[in-house]
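Input (structure):
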């Protein structure tokens, strides 16, 4: 009965009425695919919900402000979280290749993220000022490093356990499910019915529990053993991975496209700085604004983006880049007309940009998994993430640009980047096309 139920849910989510559903995974993994597919959705949905509950851009920034932490710690939150999760991957990927079943690395990384989130919550309960800032940033750094392990292994495990043309659906469904819970969290923060500090701290503890649950659940995946060669010397492997750039034109174009599309991740704080007035901030509950806008975009678009990515991740990246460009240009137009501080304007623009951002996330993930082979997937992931981590670390330049030229100029530059990404993505291969 359980297997029958799993099969029904699997077919409902994938619209699978074909007899042949196993593409680019070991033949022995076919029978386990419905269970693995749903395990991915629940595990990833739990971690994505946890991500939303501790969002450094919003939740942790507000938390440190309330705890009286110096501004330097608040400024470190996003760089530590983003770069710490990406930069180490080129070195760690080689060591992780020693594991024939890499789900165990993901499980360990998820568990450490859960413990780190609990440490952040405890610091918020018992510390304040600079001590709270130092402890929370340190715990966030550990969380980011653990996340880097999960990131570099996840696509490899996904590629071995879920068939091509099903992977985007799995990740998209997880994102939409998580968004529903984050919207509920954001609504509580926005209404003001409960004091925000207890709600935020409770959210941190819930996030910790979700990461721990995901770790246990992910361990039940039926993963076939994979290649382990290339795991002896991290530095040598890093040099070899960079050599992939010289040999693979499609990898270069993919990284260029993804690099230009970091505009979708960098833009929200500048949009808020450009358009937030005291009146608008109070009307939407301040802290809950971006939480609801971002989660709402994920809820309404992630499953759709995921399904489209299973058909053509190239087109998803193109459409997402176009949507991001339009959202950023519209933000500038509304600002020029003096309408951006209207109650509806900034939430609408944030929502539009987050729609594009979700498309970028689903499109880039699915494209990378499907363009790589079973033996190159981990290396492609690590190389791509490391380069993007460097670019995100350099994203602080935009803050300096905003100081000297104004926030509107920064948004204009980010809009140009999104526009250029359209042309870069046009040259990508249709990696979902049948090759047999």
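Output (sequence):
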């Amino acid at each position: 009965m359980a297997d029958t139920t799993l099969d029904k849910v699997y077919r409902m989510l994938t619209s699978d009425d074909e007899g042949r559903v196993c593409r680019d995974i070991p033949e022995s993994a076919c029978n386990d695919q419905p269970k693995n597919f749903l395990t991915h959705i629940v595990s990833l949905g739990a971690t994505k919900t946890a991500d939303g509950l501790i969002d450094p851009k919003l939740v942790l920034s507000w938390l440190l402000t309330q705890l009286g932490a110096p501004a330097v710690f608040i400024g470190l939150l996003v760089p530590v979280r983003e770069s710490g999760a990406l930069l180490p991957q080129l070195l760690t990927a080689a060591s992780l290749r020693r594991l024939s079943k890499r789900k165990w690395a993901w499980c360990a990384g998820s568990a450490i993220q859960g413990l780190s989130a609990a440490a952040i919550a405890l610091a918020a309960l018992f510390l304040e000022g600079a001590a709270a800032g130092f402890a929370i940033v340190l715990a966030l750094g550990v969380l980011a490093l653990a996340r880097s392990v999960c990131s570099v292994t996840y696509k490899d495990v996904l590629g071995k356990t879920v068939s091509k043309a099903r992977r985007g659906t799995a990740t998209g469904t997880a994102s939409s499910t998580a968004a529903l819970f984050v919207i509920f969290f954001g609504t509580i923060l926005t209404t003001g019915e409960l004091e925000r500090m207890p709600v935020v701290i409770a959210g941190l503890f819930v996030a910790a529990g979700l990461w721990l649950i995901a770790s246990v659940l992910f361990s039940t995946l039926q993963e076939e053993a994979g290649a382990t060669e290339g795991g002896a010397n991290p530095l040598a492997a890093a040099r070899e991975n960079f050599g992939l750039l010289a040999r693979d034109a499609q990898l270069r174009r993919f990284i260029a496209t993804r690099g230009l599309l970091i505009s979708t991740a960098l833009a929200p704080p500048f949009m808020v700085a450009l358009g937030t007035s005291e009146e608008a901030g109070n009307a939407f509950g301040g802290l809950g604004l971006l939480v609801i806008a971002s989660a709402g975009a994920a809820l309404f678009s992630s499953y759709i983006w995921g399904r489209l990515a299973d058909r053509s991740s190239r087109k998803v990246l193109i459409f997402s880049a176009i949507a991001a460009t339009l959202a950023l240009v519209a933000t500038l137009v509304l600002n020029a007309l003096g309408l951006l501080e209207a109650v509806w304007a900034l939430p609408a623009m944030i929502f539009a940009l987050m729609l594009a951002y979700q498309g970028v996330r689903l499109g880039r993930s699915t494209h990378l998994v499907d363009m790589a082979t079973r033996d190159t997937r981990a290396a492609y992931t690590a190389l791509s993430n490391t380069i993007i981590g460097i670019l995100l670390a350099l994203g602080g330049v935009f803050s300096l640009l905003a100081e000297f030229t104004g926030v509107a100029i920064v948004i204009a530059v980010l809009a140009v980047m999104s526009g250029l990404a359209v042309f870069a993505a046009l040259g990508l291969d249709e990696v979902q096309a049948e090759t047999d």
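Notes: Confidence is low (pLDDT under 50) at residues 277-285. The chain has one domain: 34-221+231-426.
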